Amino acid sequence: MRLSFSEKRALQKTIMTNLASLQGSDLSFQDKRRFQKEIQDAFAKLKEKLDIVDTGEPQMGPATMDDVNNVMPLLQHFIGASQLAAMGDGVRGEEGQFFKDKFIEIARTIDAMPKTYGQDGKGDDAMVYLHYFKGGSDWYITEKDQETEQAQAFGYAILNGDKQNAELGYISIEELTKLGVELDLYWSPKTLGEIKGTAPAQGKASGNENQRLSDLIAGKYNNEPPEGFLKILKEIIEEINDIEPVKPPTITYIETNQDKINSIMESALEEVFGRLWEKTSGFPPRPIETLSSPQPASDAVRIKNQDGDYGPPRKISIDIDDDFYGPTAFRAVIRAIEEARAGDTIEIKVNSNGGDTQSAQAIYVALLKTLAKTKAIIINAYSAGSIVAMACDEIEPTPFCSMMVHNASTFSGGKLGDLAGKATFLNDYFGEWYQQLYAGFLSDEELKDVIKGQDFWLKEPQIRERLKNWKPIRQRLQENGTIKAA
Q1: Taking residues 260-274, what's their average pLDDT?
Q2: DSSP 62-111
């Protein structure tokens, strides 16, 4: 019998609820200890059997940040940047282990799934390994692209819930993720026939034993006395003995082609580690270098591991202490932000008079997409410097810091009609961007005055007061659906 990830978590919650209820019962101390041990032992047997039925894979320990970082280059081709960012936030939260395990679970599925033509001729018996969705549309992926970039995966698309006109064909996962389509994190592989409704679900037990386990997962036995709950738990374990384990085609394929897979994996690992060694010249990585950075990269970007000298998570300190003079001004900074990993913390000290908005916008985009948690430490954040500060997840004012917000300045020449058109465009462009960027920090009336040309100068107390009503832009964009949270 297959349990989804959420069903496993619900089952664990049911067991923990019943263990907790023992403490408030009228049982003696000895009986409480006895029931606690027997329920824990029974649950261990149940988990073992369900794991065997579920995948047939060997037991694995909890995923670590090293595991997550190792699979991130693969996942970036299958999960959109905004969804990865939201999952990265989840890694740092109370459900951190859940998201670490989920990253690894998805990576294993992607690794094992066939490439294009790998299920050719199977028809409705072809396995669907990944499910993407947005609104009423669904994309079911049966084969990944031959290339690293997922421009031509293969699968079954149902657009706007129209199952009658659903069809098989090539699907660009790259395009889907750019359009905000999300990967279903709770998907369990199943046949195409199951999706279409032309084949029975695989790996399901029929009859009373399936219903009793479903009732257990749903918590319907939580009000049973300890002896009654333990009796039901043991009966369900015995019933599972009669359920024949179903191995997904992936596991069967792996067992049949183990030697071939081992050879491919050895070659792939040699190539990956060769590239990694070439890129970093060993571990820890060398400082990021660029010819276009206004400061030496080793001074502008400093990476420090928080758990000793080697392992993640890392603290990445960045100094923005020069003018924004063009789109390429801070390439080293942008590269450090883009290459930050889930679990990392980026601290940006902003001490700049501002400058070219294109340069600030390049950093702004990197901050929206990074997997790391970001913090701006304000010293003096003027003009374009305030744009960078407002794009971070957290803003920390320093003693006697200051900020200045104003509309963009530009110089232009040409025909009067061209100048008028450019002025209208820029006014609308910055008006819309600033409404999004400074929302909650500046009032609507203040934003209108900024667009009209007024400069707003703010001291430390004013900055601190305004931050009380401010929400980070990534949080706001997730809430209104501009970017998606997992």
Answers
A1: 61
A2: PP-HHHHHHHHHHHTTTS-HHHHHHHHHHHTSTTHHHHHHHHHHHHHHHH
